[in-house]
Structures are given as C-alpha cells and as structure tokens.
Request: fold
Amino acid sequence: MMAVIPGFKEWQVAQLKDVSKSLMPRPTGKNNGNGWVEPELIETANQVPIHTLMEFDKGDKALCLWHDEDTPSLSYNREGNFVKCFGQCGEAHSAIDVYQKINNCDFVTAVKALTS
Ligand SMILES: [Zn+2]
Reply:
C-alpha cells in the first residue's frame, strides 16, 4: 500500500520507499578513527526524530543542507525518519547525517551526541 504523503508525487513516494530500504539496516558498527560505536547505538541515533534536529515548514520541507538554494527541496519522511533532497543533489540522509552536517562533526561524535 502506498502511503499518501502530502506534497509528494507518486514517483517520489516510490523513490522514498526505495531509499528507506537502502538506509535500513544501518552499518554494523563503524570506526572512523575517533572510536567505535555499537550497531545498536547507530540504530538508536537514527531513530531520533529529524524534526527535533532542524526545522521544517508545514509541508515538512526545508532548505537543503547539502546545496545552496532559495526554494526548499529537502523533504522529510517522518515515517522513515529520513530526509531527501529533490533538488540539485538528490541525496537521502539519515538523522546521523543531518546531525553531522548541522554540527560539522564526525560520525562517532554524532552517534554519541544523539544517544546521550
Ligand atoms: Zn540538496
């Protein structure tokens, strides 16, 4: 069954479903030189609602954090808790990605901050 997401066209919803699948499951732990985080922590970090990390308009859209723009093209999928840019970069990002981008920090720092 296709969930109806306001502001999304059908092909976008389909694409979001694919993205949702590709984002889960998350990597089984990650060591980037700044320590190791357990897979469970990564999962928990990615469950932190992205709308608590950044602001979205009523249509759950925001200016993309990964490219410069005047019109919001970053869409928030609350069900899957990820954002996807329908503009220039076209990338999907998890809560950890968003935290890293906003705070300009590494992966492990982001996971620890989101789960502390
Ligand atoms: Zn973008």
Observations:
- The first strand starts at residue 30 and ends at 31.
